[in-house]
Design brief:
The complex is a heterodimer of chains A (332) and B (331).
Chain A lengths: L3 E14 L2 E14 L3 E5 L6 H8 L7 E10 L2 E2 L5 H7 L4 E4 L3 H4 L6 H12 L4 H14 L5 H4 L9 H13 L5 E5 L7 H18 L2 E6 L2 H7 L2 E6 L2 E7 H6 L4 H9 L37 H5 L5 E4 L2 E3 L18
Chain B lengths: L6 E13 L8 E15 L4 E5 L6 H8 L7 E6 L2 E2 H6 L3 H10 E4 L13 H11 L8 H11 L16 H13 L5 E5 L7 H18 L2 E6 L2 H7 L2 E6 L2 E7 H6 L4 H9 L39 H5 L5 E4 L2 E3 L8
Parallel strand pairs in B: 3-8, 3-9, 6-7, 7-8
Antiparallel strand pairs in B: 1-2, 1-4, 4-5, 9-10, 10-12, 11-12
Classes of the chains: A alpha/beta (332), B alpha/beta (331).
Chain lengths: 332, 331
């Protein structure tokens, strides 16, 4: 059994807006193991980003963590003071954001921004910092690092900016890296480069990676386990292969069937309806209004995660009674 | 029964001038080669896809075809009529008639619907402009269109902000269909939508095409959706078409090194398919000073001296499979 690095239990993060309380994350539990790549997949509004912001305790106002436990190597992060959190962010847990153009400061050179990260956590001389930054930029594959570190973010292309953001996140060699849609803003060929880079760095530095994305292709390529989220809840947690070939939650199966594949044509199935409003989410299982297998029970109380086989959890009352089709690995 | 060459694009060129700063001394200092000699044709009832990365000129091509921006040179024939000549002419009626035949669906349904108009106003606006149906029948037609795209009659009185992204895109589709066009440009119609909604819209577009016999120019950077919806595909790189073939042929037997790299770069949602390492190094060069010879040569692993000197022309390798490469199928 591999070691658990991060454990999230019953996490609830609500946003107190004028229109009402948005239950963005409502009872989410999962764990991240040492050295693994965990996928966090879901559509927009499923709570995947808020979950990661909660772990770092940087949920923007009017959001608040209401309940739950977040343990990093056995220590409860929710009990830490802001000062203690500051030394954890960057050093133990770091994050890469979706849009590299807005996550880098436009008025500072790349060198300054990277040095800020280094000097925020430890005393470091200018020369040492310079050397370290040079190493970092080489590590993430930015050519002519010596010249480029004196440039500003707008002089970099999208892919290069994301490399800078990765260098910044890795500056203090964190044990856990959250990558929130790191390639959504990039072109496919650049996306492939950045994904390869993340994979290499993860191996080289022995860290754990949480890949947050809505792209089932990236999940299949990068991860070893997956958490499927829907409307602020966890629907299913499984090893990647199990999830694709033997999905147990109706939402997972529908999601797989709705994604077109490049290697062949297939009949796209439709998930009827829309993503629910999180101010007044549907009662019981939040997926029940869109689920063809929903029964009376599903409307009444929300299902809890059940272990259906080792390492495969599903939050569905009906999993025993239904057979779902996953990817076959063959042509249909 | 498909009719060939419903829309013909011949040697289309669009350069955007770049001016030096200064009000009095404004001088042209260069130009962006956005579209550089693009030719293709679209058959009746066909979905033709243009794919490529950002900045390759696919959207500019579409906009020039619809004469939303003026071409630098080239010809576009719609049903045999030269549309640029028509648009240069002074006959307003003729211009309107042409506009009615060609409509566009935009990428971002949040930006392309006027927030202060009701859905009924939005969908009937083209009907008013083109006097397409009699005043009394307008409402009826709007309801009909709403049903066609999977919405309800009571939605007509609402405003765009009351709808989700997928529903908004349906409204955009209804508006485009209002005047019964024959040719529709869909510019990344699903890329701002969620996965589960994407499938709905793709299926809707495919159904509408079948039932109404439309021709589509589908523009996308998402190759998986292109494979799903289109019959023929052209791959663009830096303003030029590098490969053009029927969809299955292109994806199963890509010959241009860029097409091959593009296809390999897309992760497939199946853990058993082995994903190879990214093959393409570097980034797309600037279209202001595109590389000499084959524009792909600085990133191509098979480039020879000839590739750096002479620009390869598009030629037919196999029936219906066109390629612009001096070293085809080298991978």
């Amino acid at each position: 059994m591999t070691e658990t690095l991060l454990k999230v239990e019953g996490l609830k993060t609500y946003f107190y807006t004028e229109a009402g309380i948005v239950k963005a994350v409502d009872g989410v539990s999962f764990d991240v193991r040492k050295g693994e790549t965990l996928g966090l997949v879901g559509e927009s509004g499923s709570g995947k980003t808020v979950t990661s912001l909660s772990v770092l305790r940087i949920v923007p106002k009017p959001g608040r963590i209401v309940e739950g436990k977040i343990e990093l190597k056995g220590e409860n992060l929710l009990a830490k003071s802001e000062k203690e959190m500051q030394s954890i962010r960057g050093r133990e847990i770091a994050m890469i954001f979706q849009d590299p153009s807005s996550s880098l400061v436009p008025v500072y050179t790349v060198e300054t921004q990277l040095r800020d990260v280094l000097s925020a956590h430890e005393k470091i001389s200018k020369d040492d910092a310079h050397k370290k930054i040079l190493d970092l930029m080489n590590l993430v594959g930015i050519p002519e690092a010596e010249i480029r570190m004196r440039e500003f973010p707008h002089q970099f292309s999208g892919g290069m900016k994301q490399r800078v953001a990765i260098a910044r996140a890795l500056a203090l060699e964190p044990e856990l890296l959250f990558a929130d849609e790191p390639t959504t803003a990039l072109d496919v060929t650049i996306q492939a480069q950045v994904l390869d880079l993340l994979e290499d760095l993860k191996k080289k530095m022995g860290m754990s990676l949480v890949m947050i994305t809505h792209d089932m292709g990236i999940i299949a390529k990068m991860t070893s386990r997956v958490v499927v989220m829907y409307a602020g809840n966890v629907a299913e947690i499984a090893k990647t292969d199990d999830l694709y070939y033997r999905p147990r939650h109706p939402y997972t199966a529908l999601l797989l069937a709705a994604v077109p594949r490049l290697d062949r044509k297939k009949t796209l199935s439709i998930i009827p309806g829309n993503i629910p409003n999180l101010i007044e989410p549907p009662s019981g299982c939040r997926f029940h209004p869109r689920c063809e297998f929903a029964t009376k029970k599903c409307e009444e109380a929300p299902p809890v995660l059940e272990e259906v086989e080792p390492d495969h959890f599903v939050a569905c009352y009906e999993w025993k009674n239904i057979t779902l089709k996953g990817e076959t690995g063959k042509n249909d | 029964m498909t009719e060939e060459n419903f829309l013909q694009v011949k040697n289309l060129v669009k350069y955007f001038p770049i001016y030096s700063r200064g009000v009095l001394t404004k001088k042209q200092v260069g130009q962006v080669h956005a579209v550089d000699g693009v030719s293709f044709n679209i058959n009746k009832q066909e979905t033709f896809a243009l794919v490529g990365e950002s900045g390759c000129g696919k959207t500019t091509t579409a906009r020039v075809i619809l004469n939303l921006i003026e071409p630098t040179s080239g010809e576009v024939l719609l049903d045999g009529e030269n549309i640029f000549e028509k648009f240069k002419g002074s006959d307003k009626k003729e211009k309107l008639k042409l506009r009615r035949k060609m409509q566009m669906i935009f990428q971002n349904p949040y930006g392309s619907l006027d927030p202060r108009m009701t859905i009924c106003d939005i969908i009937s606006e083209p009907l008013v402009i083109h006097k397409h149906v009699a005043k009394e029948c307008r409402c009826e037609r709007v309801y009909e269109l709403l049903k066609l795209v999977g919405l309800e009659e009571y939605h007509a009185e609402r405003y765009p902000h009351e709808f989700s992204g997928g529903q908004r895109q349906r409204i955009c589709i209804a508006r485009a269909l209002a005047v019964e066009p024959e040719f529709i440009v869909a510019d990344e119609p699903v890329s701002s939508l969620d996965v589960s909604i994407r499938a709905q819209i793709l299926n809707l577009l495919a159904d509408l095409q079948k039932s109404m016999g439309l021709s589509f120019l589908y523009i996308s950077h998402d190759l998986s959706s292109v494979r799903q919806i289109s019959q023929r595909v052209a791959v663009m790189y830096l303003g030029e078409i590098v490969e053009l073939a029927e969809t299955d042929e292109l994806f199963d037997n890509p010959l241009h090194p860029y097409t091959q790299a593009l296809i390999e770069a897309v992760p497939i949602p199946d853990p058993k398919t082995k994903n190879v390492k990214a093959r393409l190094r570097g980034e797309v060069p600037s279209p202001i000073n595109p590389p000499l010879g084959c524009r792909f040569n600085p990133r191509c692993t098979h480039a020879t001296a000839a590739c750096r000197e002479k620009k390869p022309e598009l030629f037919e390798v196999d029936k219906g499979h066109f390629l612009a490469c001096a070293q085809p199928g080298q991978a």
